[in-house]
Amino acid sequence: MKLHGKSVLSFFHGYRTQAPDQEGILLKKGARNTSYQRRWFILRGNLLFYQEHQADHTPLGLILLENCQVEPRLKATEPYAFTILTPRMEGVGGRAYKLAAESQEELGTWLCALAGVSWRRLAVLLSQLEAQYRELCQAAGQEPSSPPENCDFLATLSVPSSFQELHERFGKEIRMLQASDKGGRSPGKSGAGAQPVFVDE
Amino acid sequence: MRYNEKELRALSRQPAELAAELGMRGPKKGSVAKRRLVKLVVNFLFYFRTDEAEPLGALLLERCRVAQEEPGGFSISFVEDPERKYHFECCSQEQCEQWTEALRRASYEYMRRSLIFYRNEIQKMTGKDPLEQFGISEETRFQLSSLPRDGQSARVSSRLDELD
């Protein structure tokens, strides 16, 4: 079976300037070689990447975390040890990744980070908040907005401001983007021109 | 890059968000459309030969663009390589819209961003943080700071600073 590597690496590289959900050194027990190896782990969404060194550009490996069980291992040879147990479905899968953090604090941070990774959990939370938002809009007689296609608007918000203030700020940004888009295009140029303003995920 | 194929196969057997037999054509020039069982499981798209239990392949649906393609189909491409498209043929416009909507919403990053957006909106409207009721207000992955500040965002915000 082919995992289209480009789709995964595209995700990995595309977010390299964004802080991951969690990252750091973990000791990983090899599958065949049973000694622990020091690896740099990067958690993004429901995917756990690992590479040999922090500065490496390409991950060594990938662990899919959906429906996994994460548990501390009290009887391990290494202190601060835990296991990621991947689900077994219809006789397939079910592997235990044996990992260890380098301190009690780091163990706690990783266990916490890994506890909430599930896509399905996120989907449930999202649908609840979306429903709540729509109900509030309906009660207020307000047209609900959709989440923006990119993060520009959200990234400029540090504290929720008044609706009027935000309305004006968004309007400013839209007019600026429209102005720069018009400036960049000229009739008669080939189609290869302007970059899309919004990036779909 | 190493991954555990068994893990991926196990994932493909998990309950699907959406599954259907569609025509599928790979991104390579001259590739022919073939009937495939296409299955959306969390943020992965699996495709199978219609009579086989093991998937032929999987695509991770992050940083991708899903576009409707005339007639009655859609394409998936990745932001880093927009010309390389995976094409799918649906049996109706309705099915096409159902799939494009589901695929767009399948991205973990899209979902996270949307959740943060709604959280912010609800907080503005009610003065209360809706994540408090779940006891997860402090969870790192749901903070505004977890969102990307890419080049475009930085340019826009610095222009705004100039205007202020």
UniProtKB/TrEMBL annotation, chain B:
Top-rank taxon: Eukaryota
Residue ranges of the region described as Disordered: 144-164
GO biological process assignments: endosome organization; receptor recycling; retrograde transport, endosome to Golgi
CDD domains in the record: PH_PLEKHJ1 (cd13258)
Domain PH: from-to ranges: 15-108
InterPro entries with a match to the protein in the record: Boi1/Boi2-like, PH-like_dom_sf, PH_domain
A single cellular component GO annotation: early endosome
Signal peptide feature range: none
Pfam families, sorted: PH
Coiled coil segments of this chain: none
PANTHER family in the record: PLECKSTRIN HOMOLOGY DOMAIN-CONTAINING FAMILY J MEMBER 1, SESQUIPEDALIAN
Name this polypeptide is given: Pleckstrin homology domain-containing family J member 1
Organism: Sciurus vulgaris
